[in-house]
């Protein structure tokens, strides 16, 4: 009787798992002094804010809503909160200011500046930035180790690095001079950006 009940319970469990399969996610956790930083790169968490109402709202210790606004002055701002947590970790890791060049963009502004039609910035899931006095390849190497799937290193300082929360991994260098992307492949150690000391 006990064996039969166990088999029935096991069958019910199998049916539940088939109906609701487990989803494995990249959750990055880092102990940093008294704080534990945890963010889930695989689960974008996009929230809508108003520049007028929420512009001065602090999202983390060092980032405010207004820093993620579209540069055309529109009120709506879409922000992926998981990317904000990742940016805060990058700032804490290097212990240097992070300067955001471009985050959320409206479709009109994206077209005006010649942005990619499928830009993750349109969804609030992409950020172009640089870390003060830090090589963009070092920042890219850290972002890769954090599990960020979208990384583009730009050839000039103004647009030195782009990260986004795309599902499929894609790492590239972008040359403004040639207007071309060059995909970055893994090295022997399994990394695309192997520039961390």
Word description of this protein:
The protein is an alpha+beta fold. The protein is built from 5 helices and 10 strands, in the order αβββαβαβαβαββββ. It has helices spanning 2-19, 51-54, 81-94, 107-112, 136-145, and strands at residues 27-32, 35-40, 46-50, 76-80, 98-102, 126-131, 150-154, 161-164, 170-175, 180-183. The strands form 3 sheets. A 6-stranded mixed sheet has the order 5-6-8-7-9-10. The longest helix is centred in the first third of the chain and has 18 residues, at 2-19. It is globular.
Summarize this entry quickly.
With 197 residues, the protein is an alpha+beta fold.
Summary keywords:
197 residues, alpha+beta, 6-stranded mixed beta sheet, two-stranded antiparallel ribbon, 26% helix, globular, disordered N terminus
Outline the secondary-structure elements.
Blueprint lengths: L1 H18 L7 E6 L2 E6 L5 E5 H4 L21 E5 H14 L3 E5 L4 H6 L13 E6 L4 H10 L4 E5 L6 E4 L5 E6 L4 E4 L14
Helix content: 25-40%
**If you average the pLDDT, what whole number results?**
80
The strand line-up of the biggest sheet is: 5-6-8-7-9-10
Radius of gyration (CA) equals: 20 Å
Structural class: alpha+beta
Number of helices: 5
Order of helices and strands: HEEEHEHEHEHEEEE
Amino-to-carboxy terminus distance: 62 Å
Roughly what fraction of the amino acids lie in strands? 25-35%
Overall shape: it is globular
The tally of strands reads 10
Poorly predicted sequence stretches spanning 5 or more consecutive residues: 2-28, 31-37
Sheet with the most strands, sense and barrel status: 6 strands, mixed
